[in-house]
Design goal:
- The protein is α+β, with helices and mostly antiparallel strands and about 240 residues long.
- The chain is about 30% helix and about 35% strand.
- The protein is built from six helices and nine strands; from the N terminus they run βαβαβββααββββαα.
- A hairpin with a 2-residue loop joins strand 4 and strand 5.
- The radius of gyration is 19 Å and the shape is globular.
- The N and C termini lie far apart (about 55 Å).
């Protein structure tokens, strides 16, 4: 089912907003942009990694080059409903994305059975090479958020606000639920500004006026750190039980 494929190159900036900043930026956005036709949408992104979490650990170190592979769904999906398999790379601050549409059956065959996508396109070759290079990629962490996306006709500018970002380290599938452990307090959200060109003046002024400043927050990086702290705590408690 590897049908739709596309590539993308852009800059992405992230900001963590409190409740007053969320209201301020939404008030400005409604005068300059439109909410996309899906409105508020729950998005689930399943990250694949090596058993040692090589990809996520590398990303946390903020190197000049980093890459990830992930499956994304918009809402819960059944086995034959569309998913998007993506490679996302960041090189010196520029984000490159390669993405195809597939489904759960073909995605499982790709990762578990090493079955290549049949379409001999550049994107499919990159996906196959990525999997074969890292080897033994498996579901690692599931990131979920409720997203409001804005666009502007005739512009490459895209803005998203992710509410209630959360994660799971178990039940790593895209058809069970949208539940997860919070990554931020409930009154905070993540603003992402994505564009190929410079930010418009009206947006720069809106950010400055609301005291909104750029951050390097990574949802999957934050999830990994929480997961590892919990794992270490459990290991420590188990060790104490054995010694007592």
């Amino acid at each position: 089912m590897e049908k739709t494929a596309f590539t993308m190159m852009r800059y992405e900036n992230k900001y963590i907003l409190d409740s007053s900043q969320i209201k301020a930026i939404r008030d400005v956005l409604k005068d300059h942009m439109q909410i996309d036709k899906y409105g508020l949408t729950s998005i689930a992104t399943l990250y694949f990694d090596t058993p040692s979490f090589q990809l996520i650990r590398t990303s946390i170190d903020k190197p000049a080059f980093k890459e990830k592979i992930r499956l994304r769904s918009y809402g819960l999906v059944k086995d034959d409903e569309p998913l998007f398999l993506e490679i996302k790379r960041k090189v010196n601050g520029v984000v490159y994305k390669r993405r195809i549409m597939t489904d759960a059956k073909h995605a499982k065959e790709f990762f578990v059975k090493n079955k290549d996508f049949s379409n001999n396109s550049q994107i499919n070759r990159e996906l196959n090479y990525f999997r074969d290079y890292y080897q033994n990629l498996q579901p690692a962490l599931l990131i979920i958020s409720d997203r409001e996306a804005y666009f502007k006709e005739g512009s490459d500018l895209r803005i998203t606000i992710d509410y209630k970002p959360r994660f799971r380290s178990e039940n790593l599938d895209l058809h069970t639920s949208m539940d997860g452990e919070n990554l931020l307090p409930n009154d905070q959200a993540i603003l992402e500004i994505k564009a190929q060109r410079a930010m418009p003046i009206w947006l720069s002024r809106a950010l400055a006026g609301a005291n909104i400043y750029k951050t390097s927050f990574s949802k999957v990086g934050a999830a990994y750190q929480i997961f590892m702290k919990q794992k270490l705590k459990k290991s420590s408690l188990w060790g104490r039980c054995l010694l007592s």
